[in-house]
Specification:
The complex is a heterotrimer. Chain A is mainly α. In chain A, about 70% of the residues lie in helices and about 0% in strands. Chain B is α/β, with parallel strands linked by helices. In chain B, the strands form two sheets. In chain B, strands 6-7-8-3-9-10-12-11 form an eight-stranded mixed sheet, sandwiched between helices. A four-stranded antiparallel sheet of chain B has the order 2-1-4-5. The radius of gyration of chain B is 21 Å and the shape is globular. The chains are: A mainly alpha, B alpha/beta, C alpha/beta. Chains in contact: A-B, A-C, B-C.
Chain lengths: ~300, ~325, ~325
């Protein structure tokens, strides 16, 4: 048996512990993100937004210069100044505080709706892709029907049935985006299903669900993660659109889209009411998109050595 | 000798759709009415060129594919019945080593996890005992313990194939199907892996079904060899008999086609004319008749049955019809 | 000499360092001769042929140096335009995978005609006639109908014949065949090899055959060049290589082939694996796997030693060096 042994001093020297190797892989990954300037900027901004949202959730009003919900009517419609960075709105509320407060709302809507849509979409997509047959046909036709409607209109339709409110908005947006994730997952599962390592997993005695969870899903993570990151920005936009139309978040909660909608009539004399929430939406969406693109490049195995 | 596996009239047809809306569907007759036995402890080699159905047959025996008709008996019991009853009764007893070392290992799992998995699923060992077994297995296939936290892409083709072997033998199966297990490797690595498989068989008593497209590779490791052509088993014999007195014209052509690494041995080569026919529409009668240098009229009409010409030497060819 | 390669070096710059895939290779091909380059994966044999045909992507990370003299002219000095005039006309190449080497959206007749029209300035009609003639030459039945087939309508063996027809349509003097039969079944391989020998007789084409299959080499080659880790380790006539191989790698390679006409219990193996090209050992690249490794082999790189009609890169034969007299 010894003649078959591969001994090499080199190999022994380079043996590393599992943790160390994980760290090396992570370092390489971060390096790739950093080398892509746009993605790096996106990552920084996303991190900043997330930090702000987390701090805001913990400390609430305490970290804000003013109470975002109560306004001083005597100070309404004031231009940006050193006292009020972004000015005040029609009810005398400080826009800066409201914009900051709205960060956590938008982020929550974005992340939670993506999480729900991703989970449901993954289950549907995996089952359809792996088992095929009549189940696949049936479920994917339902997905196609949902996809056939413009997502925003469908979301509005759901809202009219469900009623207004932040949680209802999350549900509506989730339902509307499930089919996209189902499609991506199904496609990936199809491409991986016939691989020899999946056949091998079957041969050693795994049942179908073990195969899907242990072998198929981990190997199709990359395109799904990228899609999910980009999905967050889409969900934030959808939430803002619903808010703008007066659905979704209800006053006095400060949500960027709702602020846009409410400030519409003051566009000409107090454009800052719309400007700052609008900028917030734009920067957030842009940051997630840039980061998502960078993530896609970093996770692409062809570019990654 | 005990029969470990009996294959009876095995058929596997793949539906590839129809040529028109109202047409009958087309089938690829990948494996067509194949019958043979595998004896305990032997290595049965199966050889054939692309499209002959050998890989499909290998997968049918491991129950990765369902047969269209026919029986596969493992220790007297039908394999699909065994599988329906308890999947693990199959995976504990019949295993497979795949051809492509680059595709048969999950790229996201360490090789330690890849080899532990079958042992965990089939209840072979747990905890410390599992780790001990893992170390032993790694050593048996010529790898080292410190390899277990590494990923497949860090290894060469030959080393990956060793991982595949360790995975297959980890559950101590009775039968191992080697589906072109060395075809994708360089010649010098092929030799290493063939020796390894041989040594493991001597030490641990496996029965092998060794599928290959090279008659030279199969000769070295097999006790008996079967030759397949377009889904049919055309000849099966002990390795000595097949190579010294090949009876089927296709076997003879196959043997003669192998380039010998010896420029002085210029031999009379049987060069077959034409290409391998499509398995969707195989020729009538004997499937080999379109390329056979000895084709007779009867060959174009009637399929020759597989008959025993000498003890243990079966051939399907009208040349040997009793007059 | 039709083709004379002198000190050919091809280096690729990678993130982890420079890889010299071809590291100082010399050999020659005479008119009408079949020379086989033999080696396993990583030996640099394919990169050699791509380098001399100038088919490697022209990036900053690729550097090809040395001389590739074709009929006295250095191919490496030529401009892309000049090379395009020569490819297909004076030297042609066929590849391993006939499916991906043929354009799936053009008929095979059109693909064969392309070379004839471009290099010989033939009319479409004349080119079509030539295509049919070539198809007949390479043994494709009913060439008048087959000429309008698409690649997917042909089998692997037939597609490889079409590739050969394409390569020989303008009667080049040198045909480079990169693993032409590796992807084919054994019986089809036999057909293709016989065809190549036939064509060599009929058209007088020299063939540079790249392969890892020593059986194929024994069948068709006149001269053999053995490569390991980017260097030539042995060069000899085919009979000499098989009867009396000199380099330990060649000996090991020959011994590890399972032979159909011999009964062996265990196959001989070359221990260890091919070294990582980014981390080649000092001295001889084969030292860690060589049963005859000397102290010298670990520090100095052996030069190609001239033994008269053959050459070996191994210190074991230092004393026999004819060049030293």
């Amino acid at each position: 048996m010894n003649t078959n042994k591969l001994t090499s001093k080199e190999e022994q020297k380079t043996s590393m512990s599992k943790l160390k190797r994980l760290l090396v892989r992570f370092k390489n990954f971060i390096g790739l993100i950093i080398s892509n300037k746009a993605a790096f900027v996106g990552l920084i901004i996303v991190m900043l937004i997330v930090i702000v949202a987390i701090l805001n959730s913990i400390f609430g009003k305490l970290m804000l210069p003013y109470d975002p919900f109560t306004g001083d009517l005597s100070k309404s419609l004031q231009s940006p100044s050193s006292a009020h960075f972004f000015g005040t709105d029609e009810q005398g509320r400080d826009i800066f505080s409201r914009v900051i407060d709205g960060t956590k709302i938008s982020l929550r809507v974005g992340v939670i709706s993506v999480a729900i849509a991703l989970s449901v979409g993954t289950v549907v997509g995996s089952v359809c892709g792996y088992f095929g047959g009549k189940l696949d046909m049936f479920l994917m036709r339902i997905m196609d029907i949902v996809l056939a409607f413009p997502s925003l209109l469908l979301a509005i339709a759901f809202m009219s049935a469900l009623g207004r409110g932040l949680d209802k908005a999350v549900i509506a947006i989730s339902i509307v985006t499930i089919p996209e994730y189902a499609r991506i997952v199904r496609g990936c599962v199809l491409s991986v299903r016939e691989s020899e390592y999946v056949q091998a997993a079957k041969a050693i005695g795994n049942n179908e669900f073990a195969i899907i969870f242990k072998h198929v899903l981990p190997n199709i993570l990359s395109p799904i993660i990228v899609r999910a990151t980009l999905g967050v920005s889409g969900a934030i936009l959808d939430a803002a659109a619903l808010g703008f139309l007066g659905l979704g978040v209800q006053p006095p909660l400060a949500e960027w889209g709702t602020m846009l909608g409410a400030g519409r009539s003051y566009f000409f004399n107090a454009p800052y009411i719309i400007l700052f929430p609008g900028l917030a939406i734009t920067i957030t969406v842009l940051a997630f998109n840039l980061f998502g693109d960078g993530l896609r490049d970093a996770l692409d195995p062809k570019l990654n050595a | 000798m005990d029969k470990l596996m009996e294959v009876k009239n095995l058929k596997k047809y793949f539906n590839v759709g129809s040529s028109g809306f109202f047409q009958k569907p087309n089938y690829v007759q990948a494996v067509d009415d194949v019958t043979f036995d595998i004896y305990k402890g032997e290595t049965l080699g199966i050889v054939g060129e692309s499209g002959c159905g050998k890989s499909t047959m290998g997968r049918l025996l491991v129950t990765l594919l369902d047969s269209t008709s026919g029986e596969i008996l493992f220790e007297g019991k039908e394999v699909n019945a065994i599988r329906k009853n308890n999947r693990k009764d199959i995976s504990k007893n019949i295993q497979i080593i795949f051809q492509d070392p680059y595709a048969s290992l999950n790229p996201r799992m360490t090789i330690g996890d890849i080899i532990r998995e079958p042992m965990k699923i089939n209840g072979i060992a747990t905890g410390d005992e599992l780790e001990k077994k893992l170390d032993i297995l790694l050593e048996q296939v010529g790898l080292a313990s410190y390899h277990k936290d590494r990923y497949p892409h860090e290894f060469s083709g030959g080393q990956r194939q060793r991982v595949g072997i360790a995975r297959a033998i980890s559950v101590n199966p009775k039968l191992i199907v080697c589906d072109e297990a060395v075809s994708a490797l360089d010649v010098s690595i092929q030799a290493q892996i063939l020796n390894l498989l041989s040594d493991l068989q001597k030490e641990l008593g496996f029965t092998y079904l060794f599928i290959a497209h090279g008659l030279n590779v199969v000769k070295h490791i097999s006790d008996r060899v079967g030759v397949m052509y377009l889904g049919k088993l055309v000849e099966i014999a002990t390795v000595d008999n097949l190579y010294s007195t090949p009876m089927h014209p296709y076997t003879r052509a196959l043997l003669s086609a192998i380039p010998i690494p010896n420029p002085e041995k210029k031999k009379e080569r049987i060069i077959l004319t034409g290409d391998v026919p499509s398995p969707i529409n195989p020729p009538a009668g004997c499937r080999f008749h379109t390329r056979c240098p000895e084709c007779m009229d009867i060959c174009k009409q009637t399929e020759p049955p597989l008959v025993e010409l000498q003890t243990g030497h079966n051939v399907a060819c009208h040349l040997y019809d009793k007059k | 000499m039709l083709l004379d390669i002198k000190n050919l070096k091809t280096e690729f710059k990678t993130k982890k360092g420079i890889v010299a895939a071809v590291n100082g290779v010399d050999f020659s091909v005479d008119k009408g001769e079949v020379v086989a380059i033999v080696g396993e994966s990583g030996s640099g044999k394919s990169v050699t042929s791509l380098s001399l045909m100038r088919l490697l992507a022209k990036t900053d990370n690729t550097k090809v140096t040395g001389e590739a003299l074709f009929k006295g002219e250095n191919l490496l000095d030529k401009s892309e335009k000049e090379m395009q005039k020569m490819r297909g006309k004076q030297l042609s190449m066929i590849f391993q995978e006939p499916m991906t080497s043929l354009n799936p959206v053009f008929t095979i007749g059109r693909q064969i005609s392309e070379a004839v029209i471009k290099h010989d300035g033939a009319t479409k009609k004349a080119a079509r006639e030539r295509s049919i003639e070539m198809l007949r030459l390479v043994g494709i039945p009913s060439p008048e109908t087959r000429v309008d087939n698409y690649p997917h309508q042909l089998s692997g063996g037939m597609r490889q014949r079409v590739m050969i027809a394409m390569a020989l349509s303008c009667s080049p003097e040198l045909l480079i065949a990169d693993e032409p039969t590796t992807a084919l079944d054994v019986t089809i391989q036999a057909q293709i090899l016989e065809l190549m020998l036939e064509l060599k007789e009929k058209l007088g084409t020299a063939i540079l055959l790249i392969t890892h299959d020593l059986g194929v080499v024994a069948e068709v080659a006149d001269k053999v060049v053995v490569m390991y880790c980017g260097k030539v380790v042995e060069k000899a006539a085919v009979l000499d290589i098989f009867k009396a191989p000199k380099h330990p790698y060649t000996i090991g390679l020959l011994n590890s082939i399972p032979k159909i006409d011999e009964n062996e219990e265990r196959l001989f193996i070359i221990p260890g694996t091919v070294p990582n090209p980014l981390n080649l050992p000092s001295g001889c690249a084969f030292r860690d796997r060589c049963p005859n490794c000397l102290e010298k082999c670990k520090t100095d790189e052996p030069p190609l030693i001239n033994l008269g009609e053959r050459e070996v890169r191994c210190f074991l034969y230092e004393k026999e060096n004819h060049a030293n007299g």
